[in-house]
Structure formats: structure tokens, C-alpha cells
């Protein structure tokens, strides 16, 4: 049965039918894993923003055959796009995990995002708009 309201308990299905918890021995490591993934999300987002703020000028590749105006592709743009894709995937998976409606899962992810923000992103200044949604 899928819950449609928040509930507290150790029995949860997280993301996949094969990721079920039915004891403290399976529930606590699952919460720890989600907590760490949420921290990694913030770490990865900070790396992506740093790459966007400080692109290397020496890694520019010209592609005159693709665009008659001689558009430029930089390794920083490609790396930023890859990091954005990875981070978007992680964010949506965290959102789907919260949609299990298990209170412990919700708390673990929100705490992980907060701890990750504290350690990796709280020093952001200027030009970056904070978005509390992990999937944005």
C-alpha cells in the first residue's frame, strides 16, 4: 500500500520495490544513505556553480563547421552541463524518495540538504539565487 500522508515507521519503500525497510537494521542505513546523498547534492551544486563562475579561458574549442559564426564550446560549459544533469537527477531522486511520505526519510533528506548547504554553500555571495528545492 502506498501512503498518501506522512507516517512514522520503519517500514518504507524508497524509490524501488527492492529498497524496502522492515527493521531498524535496514531503516537506519537507508536514512544515512539518503542523508549522505543530500549532502553530496549540495557539494556537487557548489562545484557546478564554481565552474560556472570561474570558467577557464584556455579550454575553448572552436567548431566552425557547426556554426558559421564560429561558436565556441568550452570545457567549462560542457562540464557544467554534465554536472547540472547529474545534480538534477540526484535532486529528482531525492524528491521521489521524500514522496514515500515516510517522516524519517523526509527528515534525513532535509537535514542532509541543510548540513550540505552549511558546509559547502553558505559562503556563496552575489549572483546566485538560493533555491530550497533540491530538484531545481
Task: Give a written overview of the molecule.
The chain has a domain at 29-102 and 117-121. The chain is built from three helices and four strands. It has helices at residues 24-53, 75-98, 103-121, and strands at residues 12-13, 20-21, 60-62, 72-74. The chain has a two-stranded antiparallel ribbon. The longest helix is centred in the N-terminal third of the chain and has 30 residues, at 24-53. The radius of gyration is 19 Å and the shape is elongated. The relative contact order is 0.20. InterPro entries: Cop_transporter. Its main location: membrane.
Per-chain topology:
Elements: E1 12-13, E2 20-21, H1 24-53, E3 60-62, E4 72-74, H2 75-98, H3 103-121
Antiparallel strand pairs: 1-2, 3-4
Amino acid at each position: 500500500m502506498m501512503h498518501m500522508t506522512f507516517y512514522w515507521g520503519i517500514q518504507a519503500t524508497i524509490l524501488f520495490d527492492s529498497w524496502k525497510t522492515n527493521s531498524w537494521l535496514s531503516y537506519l542505513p537507508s536514512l544515512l544513505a539518503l542523508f549522505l546523498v543530500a549532502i553530496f547534492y549540495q557539494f556537487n551544486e557548489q562545484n557546478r556553480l564554481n565552474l560556472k563562475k570561474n570558467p577557464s579561458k584556455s579550454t575553448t574549442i572552436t567548431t566552425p563547421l557547426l556554426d558559421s559564426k564560429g561558436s565556441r564550446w568550452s570545457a567549462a560549459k560542457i562540464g557544467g552541463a554534465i554536472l547540472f544533469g547529474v545534480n538534477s537527477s540526484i535532486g529528482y531522486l531525492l524528491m521521489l524518495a521524500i514522496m514515500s511520505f515516510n517522516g524519517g526519510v523526509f527528515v534525513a533528506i532535509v537535514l542532509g540538504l541543510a548540513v550540505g548547504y552549511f558546509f559547502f554553500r553558505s559562503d556563496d555571495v552575489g549572483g546566485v539565487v538560493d533555491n530550497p528545492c533540491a530538484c531545481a
